[in-house]
Amino acid sequence: MNFMARSMAVSVAGLVVFLFATPVSAQSISEAEVTAMANNLGIFECLTSVPLFDFGDVDANGGSHGTPGVIPQGRNPTGTGGRYTNQPGTVMWTCRAAPPSNLQISLASLPSDHTVGTMDHDDLEIRLPSDPPDSWTTGYQLFTSNATLLSSIPAGNGPFEVTGRVELRLTVLDTDPPGPNTWVVRMVVTGSL
Amino acid sequence: MGMRVTCSLVSILVILGVASTTWAQRVEDMDLTVTANNLGLFECNTSVASFDFGDVNADGDDFGTPSVVAQGRAPADNGGLYENAPGSVQFTCVAAPESVVQIVLTSDATDHSGNMAVDDLEVRLPNVPGHGGTSTDYQLFSSQALLLSDLNVGNGPLAATGDVDLRLTVLDIDQTGANTWLVHMQATGTP
Lengths: 193, 191
Description:
Low-confidence stretches of chain A: 1-5, 7-21
Shape of chain A: elongated
Structural class of chain B: mainly beta
Low-confidence stretches of chain B: 1-23
Radius of gyration of chain B: 36 Å
Strand order of the largest sheet of chain B: 3-4-13-8-10
Helix content of chain B: under 10%
Shape of chain B: elongated
Distance between the termini of chain A: 77 Å
Number of domains of chain B: 1
Largest interface: A-B, 70 and 37 residues
Number of helices of chain A: 1
Largest sheet of chain B: 5 strands, antiparallel
Oligomer: heterodimer
Distance between the termini of chain B: 88 Å
CATH architecture of chain A: Sandwich
CATH class of chain A: Mainly Beta
CATH topology of chain B: Immunoglobulin-like
Number of domains of chain A: 1
Mean pLDDT of chain B: 88
Strand content of chain A: 35-45%
Strand order of the largest sheet of chain A: 3-4-12-8-9
Helix content of chain A: under 10%
Radius of gyration of chain A: 35 Å
Order of helices and strands of chain B: HEEEEEEEEEEEEEEE
Structural class of chain A: mainly beta
Mean pLDDT of chain A: 87
């Protein structure tokens, strides 16, 4: 057998083998696939317990005018005006996050957020104390300070949501003109997973 | 087939897991409105509610009443004269914001009981140190006169305090008996 004849003989043999194999694939297989999709938005929500807190009537001596939830503090230590604070627990904040997140809460109020009145806009101060006290709380911050009020608070959802007090302190300066005033306290909460 | 579906779901989860890292930072606004009505302050008071000249007579004799200065006969020689001791009656005014104050007598004849002349009593508010102001001399009890004007009054250390000077003349013609005068003073302020 010359070379050409031998090559042809191998090819035929291969074909025979292949033809023997094909009867196995005679049983057909069908694949049924379903693609499921979902977009988890997560949860990231912070709220105050009340939308508004009213100090009511106030004066530069920090005198009592019988407003519920308000503690008159008398004159301030520097003798420049009278002070008032809200009763602890009258304003609370609550944050929840899913998945859990570390929170930071900052003041973001501007002078223009003192929307009504002629008092000094920084007569209002805010702090968010922690209970029990620890490193992530700060003291009272001026209304327009853009200061961090709380940092690195772990917050989850359900039983892991986190709640704290909002403490407000108002100083009525001797130089403040009389009349009604309104401050919109803007707090920005950021969370890092 | 079941295994292939499982593999597909795992793949989807992996993809979603990669996508979720884009939410690494979330931001939420939390607003609270706070209101307060500043009443301001405007208050004037006297240091004592009453001052008693005690026993007096038309010779201006001393009967030992504390804080009473017996002056003898009045210069006009129509009766005895008495004054209260400096500082025995004071007034204090506070204002926030600062205000320019004037104080006026507003007593009338009905604010006196007894048989002496209504205007046997006179009142003045001498100048108040450090607060400017223009004081007048003694004014008759029922004169409705201006006692003090242009007084700068603030709060705290800027509160204004001054003396209330009282002068009583017992006329020779005055009937004996007890007398009471209710001195009304009205303070008005302009911020």
